[in-house]
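Team,

Forwarding the record for the chain on the shared tracking sheet. I've put the sequence and predicted structure together so nobody has to dig through attachments.
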Amino acid sequence: MDEVRPTTQAHGLASLFPPGLQAIYGECKRLYPDQANPLQVTAIVKYWLGGPDPLDYISMYRNTGCPAQDVQEHWHYVSFGLSDLYGDNRVHEFTGPEGPSGFGFELTFRLKREVGETAPPTWPAELMQGLARYVFQSENTFCSGDHISWHSPLDNSESRIQHMLLTEDPQMQAVHTPFGLISFLQIVGVCTEELQAAQQWNGQGILELLRGVHVAGGPWLITDMRRGETIFDIDPHLQERVDQGIETEGSNLSGVSAKCVWDDLSRPPEDEEDSRSICIGSQPRRLSDKDTEQIREVLRKGLEFNTKAALPPISSQRQGLDRPQSRKDSLESESSAAIVPHELVRTRQLESVHLKFNQESGTLLPLCLRGRLLHGRHFTYKSINGDTAITFVSTGVEGAFATEEHPYAAHGPWLQILLNEEFVEQMLGDLQELNTREETKLPKEYSWPEKKLKISVLPDSVFDSPLQ
């Protein structure tokens, strides 16, 4: 539980405060010299004493905006705790001044100040604590351009602002401390349609569009929880910008946590061995460093942390996104180990496969094909119910263990499917109805007998069954 109180630090006695705290307070004081004691939400029991909230403090400032830049008045929230505040290993391992401090960043948030509002709402503090819990539990970090699906109004109202993007804070500058570097990542509230556009294209592109629309954020990307229109409602031409970006650049989204399973149709039904088990085959070739980094992170931890089993990759309450990049080095030490011990794994080539997705996962198939594979990339579905994973790869992805000769290959419960451009175009045509925002009547089945591939889109209840 948190409490709200004014801060009591005296900046003239800065030497009494740990250097990490001093550094962030100093940057806040630079921006707000007349607000030396802002309201703060404070964790009653600190995380390092066994409390549930990783952020020791969230400071809340009144920002007058900048009329010359068309920036409106707003509340500015700043977190304390994702970086190393103390340098004594109570929360973060001390690694010295050269690298990142703690996770290397703190969160900020800018909320439009409503007329007559004399004090900042405190709900953003719990939102920031939720994101911090995800970071601490998963050890995944955030980057500018990341998107976070929350699937619920950020303030628990009826608002359309139900998801988030992350960007560099436009005012706060990175600070160096004896414990490392701290940057400031700002949360930006967005509508579902804007999140979907960020998935299909990229977060930075959508952030730039939001900066150009005053009511949707403006230059400093201020969140207005009362905004009832998307940027595409306000300016329909912006959808053309997104479509053009997808066409020319593809999507940056490399994978999602999902409700999915796969079956080996080439295995006789009477064979009692698990269809996702291992048999002797060729050893997998090594993935390129870039592809390894992306696929490994998807397989190792998944991309979302929402108990609602929502897509895409990063959401609210789960112990879990285009996903934060991991700091690990090898596919073998992480992805394969997350599935089965590497020394027991050999690749098995399959003749025929059946892929099963829930509706939300299925609607991302066109994105996977058009935004990723047609641009020579890959896309991974990581099951939220187990270690199963399905990676679609194009012929342009180096080092995949699925090949043009054997396009379906399993490495433990990890299935790779290699699709050439001609087949991708055919599938896009056949799966066109999944592009609509209207819910499709389920179940839906799609089959390509000549390719020995079958895809089913099924109700969520199928995946919630213990037998599945």
